[in-house]
Amino acid sequence: MAGTAAAIEILDKAVSVTQKLANNSDELDKATLKLELANLMVEFANAKIEAVTMQTLLFDAKQKILREV
């Protein structure tokens, strides 16, 4: 499922950002840190949208199967 792969990719990006922050890298100044955190929030929101979309598709498929039985 493409939706699952997209959600996993988004979560991988989020983990990467949090690892950078956890390493307390000197290369990240305050502005860059704020940008990275904003990007992380966007990525988490996208992952949530993907998860809800997947739930909806699975629910619809289940309903269709139940109607056919």
Brief descriptors of the model:
single chain, 69 residues, mainly alpha, rod-shaped
Could you characterize the architecture of this molecule?
By secondary structure, the protein is mostly helical. It contains two helices and no strands. The two termini are 25 Å apart.
Task: Report the total helices.
Answer: 2
The assembly state of the depicted protein chains is single chain
In angstroms, what separates the terminal alpha carbons?
25 Å
Total beta strands: 0
Strand count, sense and barrel status of the largest sheet are: none
- Over the alpha carbons, how many angstroms does the gyration radius reach? 17 Å
What is the helical fraction, as a range of percent? over 70%
- What's the order of the H and E elements? HH
Nearest-integer average pLDDT? 80
Identify the overall geometry: rod-shaped
- The computed structural class is mainly alpha
pLDDT < 50 runs, ≥5 residues: none
Portion in strands: under 5%
